[in-house]
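Task 17 of the worksheet. Students: predict the tertiary structure of the chain below and write it out as structure tokens. Keep your answer in the requested format; marks are given for formatting as well as content.
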Amino acid sequence: MGLSQALSTAMSGLRATQASLSLVSSNVANSETPGYVKKTLNQVAGTTGDYGSSVLLNGVNRQLDQYLQSQLRTETSGASYADVRSTYLANLQGVYGNPDSTGTIEDAYNKFLTAVQGLSTSPDSQSARIGVVNAAQSMAQQLNATSQGIQSLRANAEAGISDSVSSANNALTQIATINKQLQSSGQTDASTAALLDQRDQYVTQLSQLMDIRTVTNDQNQVTVFTNSGVQLVGTEAAQLSFNAQGTVTPNTLYNSDPTKSNVGTITINFPHGGSYDLVSTNSIRSGKIAAYLELRDNTLVKAQTQVDQLAASMASALSDKTTAGTAAPASLAPQSGFDLDLSGLQSGNVVHVSYKDNTTGVTHNLSLVRVDDPSVLPLSNTATVDPNDEVLGIDFSGGMSSVLSQLNGALGTTAGLQFSNPSGSTLRVLDDGAANRSDVTAASVTSTVSSLTSGDPQLPLFTDNGGLYTGAITANGSQMTGLAARISVNTALLGDPSRTVVFSTNPQTPAGDTTRANLMLSQLSTGTYSYSPQTGLGTTSAPFTGTLLNFAKQVISQQGEAATAAKQLADGQDVVLNTLQSKVSATSGVNIDDEMAHLLALQNAYSANARVMSSIKQMYDTLLQVM
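Model answer:
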């Protein structure tokens, strides 16, 4: 039996060597194949008799470090997120332009300011008047173009989400298909190892799109979850759906309430029924999809708010007039207060009332905002930028009697104030007199001048698509939203540039009068304003305050810094990712030199096993000859 055992052992050695040669051939052929993992033969000793053991093949090993693979997928998600953000912020910087360069908001504003300075110096010059109108048009067009650029980036992000969802669905389907093909055979053969390579490639593709984690069972089947815990795929794949909403404008914004949202959201539909909104639940936190969502719904919305705020502040700086109230008649003593003319009050305009609470010694600053759409009430204190005021929205759609009822109901009992309408459009506010609970200390009205020849130097130089900009708040949101896309120069001014100087026709403003030009210059060059914290500058309690030019410079500077920071982060993420990829390649990739050395060893082993078989044959021949 000894020769039979020796022959069997040698043949097992040849079979093992042939299998190893096949794997070496596969490794060499796929050395440059993305996602291919080096494979080796799993050999164990098997007893064949009393004097030796044969070699048994126990499957194929994939030379894979699963911890490194998990880390690589995490960093792949992070790098994809950072790269998308860096690309978009670089493009946004291109939309804004670099500081001090031409064709930017800052450049257009400086030219507009220079034209107004020329008008202030030569108000009777027809060319100076036309110059102001032309410069204002250029300013408006620059804001229009900037808004268009921002919305184009948002539309690209929306399209990016749609494409990413399609790619994710393909990867999920492929992972589920391969999971079903994997059998519990107790060992991994070459075909199974190839399937695992393919599946890992799809899992890696998925990690580029979103942050994921995986769990592998004893059948080599993988279950994929988001890091937030939502199962994406096992033996069956969930499917993602994205309801793109079409054209993206400044007014198309995301809201967790689907009845108020007018951009697409991502829903996961599970194989056995049920669905889940992945956006409102913040279930996707990294990868390309997370970056697109962040850009579409936050970063680029903030950029739009910045240019809208500049457009609104510039328009209001020239058209808004604040008129102090006149003291109420002395005959009303012991009560005292003010009479306010509301004849020019527009939706979004504000009545300011300050009163001192004599019980606590605290002075309250009220901002009574005119509202013509009661559905938006009540207003929050963030309806104005002033961090020190108390905002009260008043519905004017029901007339003065309704206004008085609202004011007295809200402030009569709590503050002891009394509101009345002595005549016409006059609003009278009084304290409580002898009770001495409160004293009205100041009152004024800020209204928007609607005519170029109202007799006031203020003018509606800029309009909202031809209409008056007043800061109105309606069910559709704030009028400021998207104003940069709609702002234009008053058509009446385009037809008659003399109105840049003439603000009264009865009596006629002298041709050389500098009143209006000086007001425009003052408001545009040295006037200081507060800006909404939604622009990303300042906070609710300490809003950014400065001139219009300072605000524009700050916005452009902030954007440049954000683009630089995003680029640095993306570069850092790419370094980490490349380092991990190198480590994975070192442990799992094919090294041609190692394979060639292994091939030589296999050649020797094959020759040795063949030599053993040849010797056994000679022994059998000798034995047969003797017999």
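Marker's comment: The mean pLDDT is 90. DSSP finds twelve helices and 23 strands in the chain.
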